[in-house]
């Protein structure tokens, strides 16, 4: 059974930082393209960032480039998202997702496995 378990969310003041983690089990992590999405209340789930299995390619939502950094450790089956200079509008539930394709996709239907999400709240 595939499991993706996010952690690292919490409450932080604007300007602060958080590092999210996503531990993957039950699938071949090191051949999976991974991504982070987020969903704010009343909004659709949106793409945050993605990374290829070898970490040679990354992709970011334009509005987040420069503040967020995605990375992975295939030896630990873990995906990370370093979030700096956080803003109140970054408040959302953050989800990690996996797909078998080598292509980083920015749309939710193309990912076949999802975590349960971790809440990030940024206070002003």
Written overview of the protein:
Strands 2, 4, 5, 6, 9, 10 and 11 form a seven-stranded mixed beta sheet that branches. The mean pLDDT is 95. A hairpin with a 4-residue loop joins strand 7 and strand 8 (78-83). The chain has strands at residues 3-7, 10-13, 18-25, 33-39, 46-51, 58-60, 68-73, 78-83, 92-99, 113-114, 118-123. It starts with a strand and ends with a strand. The chain is globular and about 40 Å long. With 124 residues, the chain is mainly β.
Query: What is the averaged pLDDT score?
Result: 95
Give the count of helical stretches.
Answer: 0
Major beta sheet summary: 7 strands, mixed
- Output the helix-strand order: EEEEEEEEEEE
| Percentage of residues assigned to helices | under 10%
Q: What's the count of strands?
A: 11
Strand content: over 45%
List the helices and strands and how they pair.
Elements: E1 3-7, E2 10-13, E3 18-25, E4 33-39, E5 46-51, E6 58-60, E7 68-73, E8 78-83, E9 92-99, E10 113-114, E11 118-123
Parallel strand pairs: 2-11
Antiparallel strand pairs: 1-3, 3-8, 4-5, 4-9, 5-6, 7-8, 9-10, 9-11
